[in-house]
Design brief:
By secondary structure, the chain is of the alpha/beta class. The chain contains 14 helices and 14 strands. The chain binds pyridoxal-5'-phosphate.
Length: 386
């Protein structure tokens, strides 16, 4: 169809004019290294925070599951795709998060676009942190509920919205990232939990970047640490594709909520189960996270080496942004680091707001401290220039 190709061509041309066209680059990863265009680079652009995606024990678990159960699940979980490994994974997740039950979805994106519309509909109110991940916004939109955004981490603003709109609505949901994916800061879960209780709203936290990294590996609701009780978050969502190094999404919640998801979340019902090797890998990864808390603490320690060296506010997670401003400046800073042997992908609109294009550094357990020093030195001298 000519009109179709013209449409796509014009859209691409306008993206090119703004340096906003995006294309996947072939990348072969090996541990902390990434090979691109024949060049081996030390990668700070990978969410494999514990380097578990290539851990020998986890690979072995995946191979064993493949030999036993094959690759594909063959059907959705409510038909015949609910292979035996799922039960173990869900029990392990619930135990780690201290909830009654857990439900595994095909991915984090599928989790949020299933969970949110199952809980909220046209008579309801959804209140979101404006910087919530794209799949939270997508889930909210799919639900048909009235959606309001509060300014990033501004709980007073969230409270104002609820005070104004809650009474007219049947149910209310507050959703936020636990660790913000492009800024690395933490949601004010304690205050949000108080507000949620005050307005009878249900709090969902997306812990994609917290699981395995914060709170002894248990995630951002446990980030206070020590003897302090975890924050009360009745809907603890997350992904198995980042620190867990595998694939899939999950929700940890009460037994009633989980049973309800299994019968009403459309992305759970109408999508094929995860491949058995992926589920086996996730279980093996949770073993590492549960038994090696000192290892799980490494990404944050590494991120803090970097923020200290650059005099940035102390890292709160494994993610540290260095905001550069314009898209072109972020792209050229990324290119400069590439020449020095580092892979640090530039993040630009629409992933982040216009004018806040940035380098996003993701620290992993196995990054050598000496390389972090060298990287910080280059960033200080040639990117931030102070
Ligand atoms: C990556 C991410 C997701 C999506 O998870 P996938 O398993 O990759 O689909 C959801 N929420 C946040 C905050 C993320 O960073």
């Amino acid at each position: 169809m000519r009109s179709l190709d013209e449409f796509a061509g014009e859209k691409l041309a306008s993206l090119d004019r703004a340096s906003l066209r995006r294309t996947p680059t072939v990348t072969a990863r090996a541990g902390i290294w990434a090979e691109r265009d024949g060049r081996r680079l030390l990668s700070f652009s990978c969410n494999d925070y514990l380097n578990l995606s290539q851990h020998p024990k986890i690979i072995a678990a995946a191979i064993e599951a493949t030999q036993r159960y094959g690759i594909g699940a063959g059907a959705s979980r409510l038909v015949t795709g609910n292979h035996p490994l799922y039960t173990e994974l869900e029990e392990r997740l619930a135990r780690l998060k201290g909830t009654e039950a857990a439900c595994v979805f095909g991915s984090g994106y599928l989790a949020n676009t299933g969970i949110i519309p199952a809980l909220a509909g046209p008579d309801d109110l959804i209140v979101l942190d404006e910087l919530s991940h794209a799949c939270i916004h997508a889930g909210a939109k799919l639900s048909g509920a009235e959606v309001h955004l509060y300014r990033h981490a501004d709980t007073a603003h969230a409270g104002t919205i609820l005070a104004k709109h809650r009474a007219a609505k049947k149910r209310a949901l507050i959703a936020t990232d636990g660790v913000f994916s492009m800024d690395g800061d933490l949601a004010p879960l304690g205050e949000l939990s108080d507000i949620a209780k005050r307005f009878d709203a249900w709090l969902l936290s997306d812990d994609a970047h917290g699981l395995g990294v914060l709170g002894g590996g248990r995630g951002s609701a446990f980030a206070r640490g020590g003897a302090q009780a975890p924050y009360e978050v009745p809907l603890q969502m997350g992904t198995l594709s980042k620190a867990v190094g595998a694939y899939g999404g999950y929700l940890c919640a009460s037994r009633a909520v989980i049973d309800f998801m299994r019968t009403r979340a459309r992305t759970f019902i109408y999508s094929t189960g995860l491949p058995p090797p992926v589920v086996a890998a996730a279980i093996a990864a949770l073993d590492v996270i549960e038994t090696e808390p000192a290892y799980a603490a490494e990404p944050l320690r590494k991120a803090r080496l970097f923020t200290r060296a650059l005099n940035l506010p102390e890292a709160q997670s494994a993610i540290v942004p260095v905001i550069v401003g314009e898209t072109e400046a972020a792209l050229s800073a990324s290119e400069l680091l590439r020449e020095e042997g580092f892979l640090v992908v530039a993040i630009r609109p629409p992933t982040v707001p216009a004018g806040t294009a940035r380098l996003r550094f993701a620290f992993t357990a196995q990054h050598p401290d000496s390389d972090i020093d060298r990287l910080a030195g280059i960033v200080r001298q040639r990117v931030t220039r102070h």
